[in-house]
Amino acid sequence: MSKLNFQLSFAAIHELAEGIRTREISPVEITEHALHRIERLNPKLNVFVTQTSELAIEQAKQSERDIMHGRYKGPLHGIPIVHKDLYYTKGIRTTAGSKILNSFVPDYDSTVAAKLHEAGTVLLGKVQTHEFAAGLTTTSPHFGPCLNPWNTELVTGGSSGGSASALAAGLTYLGTGSDTGGSIRIPAALCGVVGMKPTYGRVSRYGIIPMAWSLDHSGPLTRCVMDASLCLDVMSGFDPKDESTVNLPAPGIKMYPNGLRGVRIGLPTSYYYEDLMPEVEAAMKAAINKFRELGAEIIEVSLPLIKHVRSATMAIMMTEMYSYHEKWLETELEQYGPDVRMFLESSRDIPASIYLQSQRARQLIVNDFLNALSGIDILLTPATPITAPRADDDASVFRLNSFTVPTNLTGLPSLSMPCGFSPSGLPINMQLIGRPFEEATVLGIGNTYEMNTDWHKRHPDL
């Protein structure tokens, strides 16, 4: 261990992978370290719904045997991970953060869970999600609040708050997430980690409890951009069990060895830079200047239809979610938490005409974004307009998904990554948005920025 130049609790996957591959550190040692840290810190943060400690040790030992016998599977082999508790895991309960599914144990894995298992990952357990992914706080009436390691009086964001909190606290090295209105990117922002929402169709959603079928995305939360790329490559690919998936090779990452000269970055002239918390505005100005220093050209772009995004997204989300829950609303209404029950009941009476009009508007908005992206490499925006709020600050919580819902509606790849901190020490993330299936460009530009800053290397004092 003395030869390895990193702090084990906050090591990046690519750092661990090199140590595992060269046998300088074993998967068992890494897993035991993670489990000891979970034992100490999970009571403070309430991240886990179901811990799988014995399974993790068994899998770590199997990884060690495989590697010793020359069966190294790649950079995720022997890496401890957690799954958002929407992901089906064979023989391990999957609650969706709900009372209704409190005792549900799937008899098969979701496609993503199966792929990550095949890649040799070690499962530490299932972590908190806002009930049925229908919220922005990961504050559960059934399992208690999942707390933000930067300030435990504030929310982690939702609905993948468990994965984000676990990463920020050094309890895991990868967390899976799902994103319907920002549920990967918002927790990443509030907890100061990296969250990648891929293009719609890049990653299978089979075996992941849905929120809204035409808006749902599956993706990774990690500690750095390079790790997000490694994980997305494993998660990606066509799946006959999910008709939305496309048959494309894994995206990889585009490298920019000479800085970002020739890269064109678009700044929307409206919506994304309005009514920002001052510290978020300051962090974004500094990030834009850093991109200029790295050689990128900054160009203003227009998104004339952006003002219609939120209403169209909410109509689609509420209608599709209601259709999934309709059977339980007839028989299990009192089992829902108050916020989710109110959300579902308010979805009951949305007319079909509103849903159809929203889907028509959706295509116009997609075209709007594609036009804006036609002459540039990425759009650059804040990930959230504010830093982490308190759970009872309803007005602030409502604002958290303002900048993330547009790319659920359009299906465009979007990366949330650290770009600063507030004076009170809370993380701030920016969002990089790319053209369809050009995750390699989004990740590559993000990685270049990250290599020239140190925001991602800061960790909460626990």
What is the total tally of β strands?
13
Total of helices: 14
Structural class: alpha+beta
What is the rounded Rg? Answer: 21 Å
Can you give the mean pLDDT?
Answer: 97
Fraction of residues in β-strands = 5-15%
Order of helices and strands: HHEHEHEEEHEHEEHEHEHHHEHHEEH
List the uncertain runs.
Answer: none
The major β-sheet equals:
8 strands, mixed
**What is the share of helical residues?**
25-40%
The spatial strand order of the largest sheet comes to 6-8-7-12-13-11-9-10
Oligomeric status? single chain
Q: Shape from CA axes?
A: globular
Distance between the termini: 23 Å
Write up what this structure looks like.
The chain has 462 residues and is an alpha+beta fold. 38% of the residues lie in helices and 14% in strands. The chain has 14 helices and 13 strands. It has helices at 13-21, 27-45, 53-68, 111-118, 161-168, 185-191, 225-235, 278-293, 309-331, 338-347, 352-373, 394-399, 405-410, 439-451, and strands spanning 48-51, 80-84, 122-127, 139-140, 144-145, 175-179, 194-197, 217-222, 264-268, 297-301, 378-382, 414-421, 427-433. A hairpin with a 5-residue loop joins β12 and β13. 55% of the residues are buried.
